[in-house]
Amino acid sequence: MKIYKTQNRPQNILDTHIKVVLMHDGKPLKKTKTGTKSEEANPEFDETFAFDVPQSELANVYVAISAICSSNTEKSEHKLLGRIYIGLPFGGQAQEHWAEMIRSPRNQVLMVHKLTEQ
Length: 118
Fold this sequence. Notes:
By secondary structure, this protein is mainly β. It is built from one helix and eight strands.
């Protein structure tokens, strides 16, 4: 999984990072996050994450990706900017992306996703 960049963030955002969680039946299996980008309107992360999941289990897991930030006014408080779930249960582009990853084991499958605003 590669996290490349975010775009169109709200004003007054100081720090942003992306949290990536491998999930199974609503429970987190593995968590990771990008480094924090400070004071950038459209930060580029360009970070790659690998989760070792047996091919037979790919249909049973999914990934939750969340953009987290802090603002100029309340730096100590973290805020969820948006989230997307990518996996077979979610339909649309998220399902299409996951299905293509299952069909193409060990190959990078690139797709741009829009986070759902929170």
